[in-house]
Give the backbone structure.
Amino acid sequence: MTTPSSGHRSTARRRARARKPRNDAATAATRVDILKSAAKAFRRLGYHGATVQQIAAALRMKKGNLYYYFKSKEDLLFACHQYSLDRLTQLLADVEAEPVSPETKLRRLIHGAVHLILDELHGTALFLDLEALSATHLRAIIAQRDLFDKGVRALLDEGTRRGDFTEGNAKFRSFVILGAVNWIPRWFNPGGTSTSDEIAQQFADYLLDGLRR
Amino acid sequence: MTTPSSGHRSTARRRARARKPRNDAATAATRVDILKSAAKAFRRLGYHGATVQQIAAALRMKKGNLYYYFKSKEDLLFACHQYSLDRLTQLLADVEAEPVSPETKLRRLIHGAVHLILDELHGTALFLDLEALSATHLRAIIAQRDLFDKGVRALLDEGTRRGDFTEGNAKFRSFVILGAVNWIPRWFNPGGTSTSDEIAQQFADYLLDGLRR
């Protein structure tokens, strides 16, 4: 549900709109703080169990103030997914633009994705429900995710065409790579001895050894 | 929360206990049906959003009857995780007992895990929250998961010791394999053209090519 329905919220939003606009960088930083708090609450209590009140309270923010940045709980969930995908899409674009071999591009992509997930996105959207998204938002997320998947497949295909990689199904290979990387938050222990550098290195070594002639 | 608190439920449970016990096979089959309904509801509505009433209703079962099989919602979540892990643990034990090379064992383990996840466990516990489990249940699930992980690492180590696999960190390699396999439900389209056989084959080929000398 994205339609506002509570009177309390409408009042809060009117009040928020009346507030003086902040500068763009500060707004963007606050949005990211809110997304991290939202993702944490969604993971702990489930999307349906978490309330906007709790998400705001964890940031010592008033609920009405939060509605200045996001118009509904579903909007927050969508933004959580979008934020992670935007970061991954940017990483892919950066890697694609480098004048290096497909193998080096793929290695940099795996390194970058492991760092993103462990050092920046840990606690954002990877494990959150897609089911709770509105149909429009779900389509947008799936379309962006598909673009990312296609970019990874293109790197794999390029490597095979050049004869650097063995023949193989790029679709399934890309799912092996993305699955391995996306699953990291499930076993990673932030208090443990493994560093994100070490994981990135080991993952890239294993996954590239399976492609190389 | 595992402590029963509602008067309605206590009555239902008393009634359930008074019922004539069913035979073991029928009881086990009903438990699995309930687990599948529970996992589906948990995934769709979140653990906190789903109710035991909804889980029972989807099976045209009375809530009181469900409490004959599971004593609380948290008990259902625990049983969902336990059921998936029990099947994977059994698969590992079967593979370990075969008089074949570590490479063949690992190939059979990947094949078996892909089939389990796609053909039998699809819709069970892989993506469900661990956070909602009670401390005792969480410890039990983590202990069983660790045993499974250790079994996979032992196969990798055995292959390296025999000189079949290249040197490498068995812990990270096992996480690559398990992540790739566990992530499948996130992209698999049951109405699509990929079969579980094809996925199992392609995943095993890629993941074993990365190990072989």
In short: The interface with chain B takes residues 43-49, 127, 129, 131-132, 149, 166, 168-169, 172-173, 175-184, 186-187, 194, 198-199, 202-203, 205-211 of chain A (CB under 8 Å). Chain A has two domains: 7-71, 75-209. Residues 1-7 of chain A have pLDDT under 50 and may be disordered.
